[in-house]
Structure formats: structure tokens, C-alpha cells
Design a protein that fits this description.
It comes from Microtus ochrogaster (Prairie vole). It is found in: Membrane. It is a single-pass type II membrane protein. It is a single chain. This protein has two domains: 60 residues; 118 residues, Roll (Mannose-Binding Protein A, Chain A). Helices cover 46% and strands 17% of the residues. It is an alpha+beta fold. Strands 1, 2, 3, 4, 5, 6, 7 and 8 form an eight-stranded mixed sheet that branches. The chain binds 2-acetamido-2-deoxy-beta-D-glucopyranose (NAG) (7 copies). The site of one 2-acetamido-2-deoxy-beta-D-glucopyranose has 4 residues, from loops.
Length: 226
């Protein structure tokens, strides 16, 4: 019993001694490989983390650059699929112009409004109420540019379209339906300025007409926000 214990201890001492005595010799297989693995693992992890950090940093940089925008656009197009192509396209367009304006079908966008020409005729008040029923008003013309634009949309010569301007008491002046009086900087009206006169426009002129005559009309609407 005692002898074997001593022998064992001696043996251990021997092996320890031999280990310490020969440091340049390669360690036994059982320990050497795992250590190399561990080292490789740590190094690998380090590089992986570094790589991930670099990729994230690059991603942020690319997103901020204009090229990133295009790449992102392509990414959304391809990943989102056919059905939503229009949605992503219109939203990128919108962010570029920073104003998100959409007009319903048959309504023409112009600056910050949507414009619609009627298909039928009616007296001025019919045009007024028809626009109101659509959640719109008769056209208000802000400046000469807008007048030129709207005139340009009229195809047929001779067709007259009511706008939201009439001759009204109490001040006996031309007044927009929003309550403002007409400025001669915007437009000049051909014809009499008298009671029961309403304003219509054609391809080439702005005229005073009896409010009881039948004309087409133009409505304007707020654009919808996407
Ligand atoms: C985006 O896609 C278009 C074609 O859909 C391609 O012409 C263009 O080069 C692409 N841009 C980038 C930055 O990948
Ligand atoms: C996308 O818009 C175009 C017209 O700009 C239209 O022809 C097409 O049908 C639309 N696609 C979808 C999926 O709505
Ligand atoms: C008014 O507008 C509607 C469409 O919203 C249309 O159906 C109707 O015929 C129009 N005309 C008149 C005279 O109200
Ligand atoms: C009413 O409309 C006219 C014509 O577009 C415009 O010049 C004026 O500023 C408007 N007034 C108000 C109070 O919105
Ligand atoms: C009518 O004109 C007078 C001055 O001529 C002005 O003080 C008044 O505000 C005008 N009324 C309207 C409704 O524009
Ligand atoms: C002129 O327009 C006003 C609304 O701005 C309306 O109250 C008035 O009845 C109109 N006049 C005529 C003759 O239609
Ligand atoms: C309307 O007529 C006045 C005076 O004749 C003129 O000063 C003004 O420039 C004219 N406005 C337009 C829009 O042509």
C-alpha cells in the first residue's frame, strides 16, 4: 500500500520533472491541439466581430450617400416584389421632392392643388354645388402662371368653364368664393362688371357671363397626403 503510493508520487514527480526539463519539446497531443483550436477560435471571433463592425459602418456610410439611396431603392424593388413597386417608387419620388402630393384619377395636379374639368353643363350655382359635393370648390386662380396653365389644359376653342369668381354686392366688385376681392395683377375680365355676372375662362380669354347661362366648370381640390 505505502510503497505503491510512494511509487505513484514518484511517477508524477518524474513526469512533471520531464515536462519542466524539456520546454522546447512539443506538448502532448491531447493538450496541444485544443489550445491551438482555442487560439484559432478567439482569433476567428475577433475577426468576425471586426468584420461585422466594418460592414455596419460601411452600411451606415452607404445609406447616407446618394449611391446608397439608389442601392436601397433597388433593394426594396427586388425584395418587396412586383405589387409594391409603384408604392416604393412614389415614396422615393416624394422624399426627393419633400412634398407628398397625390391627386385622384381624372384630377390634374398643379402646384399644391388638384384640378378637374366637368363633363357637363350647368348654371354657375350648379357648378359651385357640384364641386362642393365632390369635397372641392370652384377653381380659384392665384396668379398669371396658374391662369396660363389652366388655359393650356383646355382643348376645344369656344368652350367656357366657370371658375370661383363672381360679381357681388355689398361692395360691387369681383370676388372670389373664398371672400377675397380680385386683384387686377392676376387677371382682367372681358365684359360687363354688373350684378348677376359670373366669370368663365376659355382657351384664350376670361369673360364675364350671365350666371344663369350654361357652361362647364372647373373644380379644385386639396391633394391627398400619402
Ligand atoms: C438599379 O437597378 C437598375 C435597373 O433596375 C440598374 O440599371 C442600376 O444600375 C441599378 N443601380 C444600382 C446602384 O445597383
Ligand atoms: C404601376 O404604375 C403603372 C403606371 O405608372 C401601371 O401601368 C401599373 O399597372 C402599376 N402597377 C401596379 C402593380 O400597380
Ligand atoms: C355632379 O358631379 C357628379 C359626380 O360627382 C355627377 O355624377 C353629376 O352628374 C354632376 N352634375 C351635376 C349637374 O350635379
Ligand atoms: C382667395 O383666392 C384668391 C385666388 O386664388 C387668392 O389670391 C386669395 O389669397 C385667397 N384668399 C384667402 C383668404 O385664402
Ligand atoms: C368693402 O369695401 C370696404 C372699403 O371700400 C372695406 O372696408 C370692406 O372690408 C369691404 N367688404 C368686404 C366684404 O370685402
Ligand atoms: C356669388 O358668389 C357668392 C359666394 O361667393 C354667392 O353667395 C352669390 O350668390 C353669388 N352670386 C350669384 C349671382 O350667383
Ligand atoms: C389688367 O389691366 C391693368 C390695367 O389695364 C394692368 O395694369 C394689369 O397688368 C392687367 N393685368 C393682367 C394680368 O394683364
Amino acid at each position: 500500500m505505502d510503497a505503491s503510493v510512494v511509487y505513484d508520487n514518484l511517477n508524477q514527480a518524474n513526469t512533471q520533472e520531464s515536462k519542466q526539463a524539456s520546454p522546447p519539446a512539443p506538448p502532448p497531443d491531447c493538450c496541444w491541439y485544443p489550445r491551438r483550436h482555442r487560439l484559432a477560435l478567439i482569433l476567428g471571433c475577433f475577426w468576425l466581430i471586426l468584420l461585422v463592425l466594418i460592414v455596419i459602418r460601411l452600411g451606415v456610410l452607404v445609406q447616407k450617400s446618394p449611391i446608397g439611396k439608389v442601392i436601397q431603392e433597388n433593394k426594396t424593388k427586388t425584395t418587396v416584389g412586383k405589387c409594391n413597386v409603384n408604392v416604393s417608387e412614389s415614396s422615393t419620388k416624394a422624399t426627393e421632392s419633400s412634398v407628398q402630393l397625390t391627386c385622384s384619377n381624372d384630377w390634374r395636379p398643379h402646384r399644391e392643388k388638384c384640378i378637374q374639368f366637368s363633363q357637363e353643363n350647368g348654371v354657375w350655382k350648379e357648378g359651385l354645388s357640384n364641386c362642393t359635393r365632390k369635397g372641392a370648390t370652384l377653381l380659384l386662380i392665384q396668379d398669371q402662371e396658374e391662369l396660363i396653365f389652366v388655359k393650356g389644359l383646355i382643348k376645344e376653342r369656344g368652350h367656357l368653364f366657370w371658375i370661383g369668381l363672381n360679381y357681388s354686392l355689398p361692395n360691387k366688385t369681383w370676388r372670389w368664393i373664398n371672400g377675397s376681392t380680385l386683384s387686377s395683377d392676376v387677371l382682367n375680365i372681358t365684359g360687363d362688371a354688373k350684378l348677376n355676372s359670373c366669370v368663365a375662362i376659355s382657351k384664350d380669354k376670361v369673360v364675364s357671363e350671365s350666371c344663369a347661362s350654361d357652361n362647364m366648370w372647373i373644380c379644385q381640390n386639396e391633394p391627398k397626403r400619402l
